[in-house]
Specification:
It contains twelve helices and 15 strands. By secondary structure, the chain is an alpha/beta fold.
Length: 323
């Protein structure tokens, strides 16, 4: 089953339960209940279909972090297309190269960003156009790209994967590789990872990582199991602690960088509502884990994932003694 439809099916029993809460820099909180989220996603998916998006198409998205990113990504999935998230801090030439390598059928972005990417190709030939004349879909514009550029030699084989997500690896150890994950594999990964995370609707997950790089065994997992996702206005310690205290957050999912910032924070504020603190994305240094544990009285669980394999390693059993 399409992973979005699974989220929607589960949400039907608790439409009023809060799915997302995002704090703007000025302090205003924007929220979505599950019912509101599912409704917004279905409307945006209908807009994508009306604009020409077809099943299994690879749709690139350059969308800023936040509720809008989540709604857009889910809409691509709901439209039966394959989402290809691209970090919004990539220069246009890099985006154009990723679009070429991914054989994108379409690109969804803010108008100015879309125009810059298309114009970064000489004559626009690589992506089929040098003008961002795309169709408005919500607050973004969708540009269908040149069919000859998009076509893969084995398009039918790609569609047979039930593709949901295509992301390029970071390129830290070799050239960036495109990794494709189908809906069936996503279901398997979420079920396997939640044996360790144990996310439920009672959880309020404080999220600090970039969504363009972390989405499947994280954002999709929290929504699949009915939790509330909390998005602070910044990753600085005061903003994180303010939101954690206000919402009585139960799970923190962040990187060693964030753990270091929090460990150095000198106020008397605590994280006593937290049942689980996860550090991921890169190796956690022992001294950071120990300083954090001393500061907050909570151990940091290191979870290591690989794009090709999900989230296979968590030291939940020995976080306090062997971080």
């Amino acid at each position: 089953m399409n992973i979005f439809e699974t989220i929607a099916e589960n949400a039907a029993s608790r439409p009023g339960h809060r799915a997302l809460a995002e704090v703007a820099p000025g302090g205003h909180v924007e929220s979505r209940t599950y019912g509101e989220l599912i409704g917004a996603v279905r409307a945006k998916a209908q807009g994508l279909r009306a604009a020409g998006i077809q099943p299994s198409w690879r749709v690139g998205m350059i969308v800023p972090q936040g509720i809008g990113f989540i709604e857009t990504a889910l809409a691509i999935l709901a439209a039966e297309a394959c989402m290809v998230p691209v970090a919004d801090d990539h220069p246009p030439a890099t985006v154009a190269e990723l679009a070429r390598r991914a054989h994108l059928h379409a690109l969804l972005a803010e108008e100015m960003t879309l125009s810059s990417v298309l114009k970064s190709c000489p004559g626009g030939a690589a992506l089929g156009s040098s003008e961002a004349t795309g169709t408005a879909v919500g607050e973004h514009r969708l540009q269908v790209l040149d069919a000859a550029t998009a076509a893969l030699p084995a398009e039918a084989d790609f569609a047979a994967l039930g593709p949901a997500y295509l992301r390029f690896t970071s390129g830290t150890t070799s050239e960036r590789k495109g990794v494709v994950i189908g809906h069936a594999r996503i279901h398997e990964r979420l079920e396997a990872a939640n044996q360790g995370l144990a996310i439920t609707p009672a959880d309020r997950v404080l999220w600090l990582l970039p969504m363009a790089h972390h989405f499947v065994v994280s954002i999709l997992l929290y929504l699949r199991y009915g939790a509330t996702i909390l998005l602070p206005p910044s990753s600085l310690a005061p903003a994180v602690l303010d939101l954690a205290e206000r919402e009585q957050a139960t799970v923190l999912y962040a990187s060693p960088y964030h753990m270091k910032l929090l460990a150095k924070e000198t106020s008397a504020r605590r994280l006593d509502s937290m049942r689980l603190i996860i550090s991921t994305a890169e190796g956690l240094r022992g001294e950071v884990a120990q300083t954090f544990a001393q500061r907050y009285g909570r151990p940091v669980v290191q979870a290591l994932g690989i794009m090709e394999a999900g989230l296979p390693v968590m030291n939940t059993a020995s976080a306090a003694t062997k971080p």
